[in-house]
């Protein structure tokens, strides 16, 4: 029996508006995949990202082009060679993991030899806005254990101070989305340290981050846009203290696990992150939590409505139970 491939573009409205330094959006557009074989269905999801030259249409086309190979029994290892790291490979890789687990009557975690932590605290993201608006948003969720603050525009010192005042006891990480200038870096890192920030993510543009090797890291600095997959990981040593692993960048769980292992060897801490997407994307990424110091898997919390059977979030803690949606 062959494996049948079904793929489509889906849209999920965002609750309100999601804003970062590069712009705002009101909906999450994902590409979902279902692989059917022997009465079992494996699922995957990806979020094409314009910053990396991806669109939903080109991603869907890349996935559908592999339908004959999938029908012929393409393995995850063969998939790694057929597609470069990116969104299209992510959806297929995660669907193949899910299908393999279901056919074997086990879980993806068991297949991968992973034991989830008993407690997974995830960040909740505060969109970029005025200091007052961000402080108001932070005050509403100040009871959560970890907030991720979107920055990357003039006035960031004021924004960060306002958020800290509104949420004095909450752990904070900052994401500048390549929006800071090297001349302001020292001051903004000092403000971050003063506000008790644990991590500053991608302060400089990916193509202009060499300066990070020559400054004092008053707060640990994390690579996001500067790191995608295994290739080039060694080049980050000396510039960054941590990396943000996203399955849409690595091209799926297979390479993400390899990246996490190599990062540990290089002395780089790990954050596991996500795009704005549904629980179908969070569930595979959740398996990296055992290797991560920071977890940022709040994508479904930013949506007006998640997929049926999605993950449960309780007070900023991610459900670690089995899910019929993916992986078990």
From TrEMBL:
SMART domains in alphabetical order: MR_MLE (SM00922)
Isomerase listed as a keyword: yes
Gene3D superfamilies: Enolase-like C-terminal domain, Enolase-like, N-terminal domain
Pfam families assigned to the protein according to its UniProt record, in alphabetical order: MR_MLE_C, MR_MLE_N
InterPro entries in alphabetical order: DgoD-like (IPR034593), Dipeptide_epimerase (IPR034603), Enolase-like_C_sf (IPR036849), Enolase-like_N (IPR029017), Enolase_C-like (IPR029065), Mandelate_racemase_C (IPR013342), Mandelate_racemase_N_dom (IPR013341)
Family, similarity comment: Belongs to the mandelate racemase/muconate lactonizing enzyme family.
Cofactor(s), by name: Mg(2+)
Domain of life: Bacteria
Keywords assigned by UniProt, alphabetized: Isomerase, Magnesium, Metal-binding
Enzyme Commission identifier(s): 5.1.1.-
Record organism: Devosia salina
Stretches of the chain forming a coiled coil according to its record: none
Domain Mandelate racemase/muconate lactonizing enzyme C-terminal: 131-222
Cofactor note: Binds 1 Mg(2+) ion per subunit.
Group of enzyme by EC: isomerase
Protein name (database record): Dipeptide epimerase
